Amino acid sequence: MNRRVRLAGRLATGTVAVALAATACTAAEEEPKEAPGPRISISPAPGEAGIAPNTPVRVSVEGGVLTDVTVEQVDREQWAAAEAGRTDGRGPARAPVTGTLSEDGSAWVSDWNLAPGGVVSVYATARDDGGERTEVVSTFGTHAVAGEDRLAEPFVLPQDGQTVGVGMPVVVTFEEPVENREQVENSMHVTSEEATEGAWNWPNETTAVFRPKKYWEPHQKVTVDLRLTGVEASEGVFGTEDRRIGFEVGRELIATMHVPEHRMHVEVDGERVRSIPVSNGKGERHFNTTTSGIHVLMEKYSRLVMDSATVGIPAGSPGYYRVEADWAVRTSNSGEFTHAAPWNGSIGYANRSNGCTNMSVSDARWFHDNTLMGDVLETTGTARELEWDNGWGFYQRSWEQWLEHSETGEPQATDSDGPPGGVHGEGL
């Protein structure tokens, strides 16, 4: 097994590589003799500037094993100010860069990308079988990014601190299309108190979605680490900041509905708490047929204007409608909600809606008030299947299909140190 080297940071003390092992003296007519002790090599080379932030730091040794590797980063401006004597020190450093050491101790590679516009100092120590010790310090610079070359901070759901249902996906929406999706996938790590497997898919070119193999175990905390610093999301566009989001999975609420029965059953932590009479889509046309499948509840409104023009049926077209509905909960992006429908006299007896799930005012308000974003509604009994990318229908893909459409093609264990693949796309 590879082992990770995680070392406390210290401030850099030099700007060029320095070998601290003694060197042998040689006469002019003699061949130069190699210095005793292990020989350490570091890449990028000392003194280099303008290094791409997604370049891996590599340390290797001949004639010994690596015993200590520390990689530190500070902003270039802080470094320059310290060099000019305008400050007493280098200023606040970023967190040290962790890395993976090969099993035989001969090589080390950084786990994550580097910060743009920074000065990177690498401290490496090695020892040979005879106890000879070599230390090397190497410093180089990464190129800065600004303006259009800077990856904008993505919008993430759930938001930090939210409590959600067991079906909740992690949805990361970028402002610009992402080209290097595998690199981005391997820079986003999800951990949970109850271990499971999950993976990312891309419904479109700007959105990455993580879902677990099955629903989350209830009553636990989940953390999402977006290690986007130095990631080249698209050609020449790099991330400059990391971000951590923590959310809580609440109780397990699963609602089930077999449309021909005109009733929804709601269970909380395995116990039925309510049976709700409903009226679903007429089913005369595609648009007014309630979708069958696994719906994840998306958002809630105390009052909502429901206009069919928003789903492609403009005013004047057959089937057009515009109504005000109270206590609405979205279940898809094709216009489906659960909501109060006091005008529908067929609730509990017949399907008369335009595709939504109609309820009495009291039942609709109860459902609105007692559900969370991420709760699950499993619907059966209609001829229209929910598309996997319609709303949050992500469980419509089997786990095998979900993995197949992941850029890495591998599951991510939520109790691991990181994603299954490295951000650099290559190992030691």
From TrEMBL:
Q: Where is this region: Disordered?
A: 27-55, 82-102, 404-428
Residue ranges of every copy of the L,D-TPase catalytic domain listed in the record? 253-380
**Residue numbers annotated as active site:** 339, 356
Transmembrane stretches, start-end: none
Q: Which Pfam families match?
A: Big_10 (PF17964), YkuD (PF03734)
Q: Tell me yes or no: is Acyltransferase among this UniProt entry's keywords.
A: yes
Q: According to its UniProt record, in which pathway does this protein act?
A: Cell wall biogenesis; peptidoglycan biosynthesis
Q: Where is the signal peptide?
A: 1-27
Q: Where is the composition biased (Gly residues)?
A: 419-428
Q: Which SUPFAM superfamilies match?
A: L,D-transpeptidase catalytic domain-like
Q: Which InterPro entries match?
A: Big_10, LD-transpeptidase, LD_TPept_cat_dom, Transpep_catalytic_dom
What is the name attached to this protein's record? Answer: L,D-transpeptidase family protein
Please give the organism: Nocardiopsis changdeensis
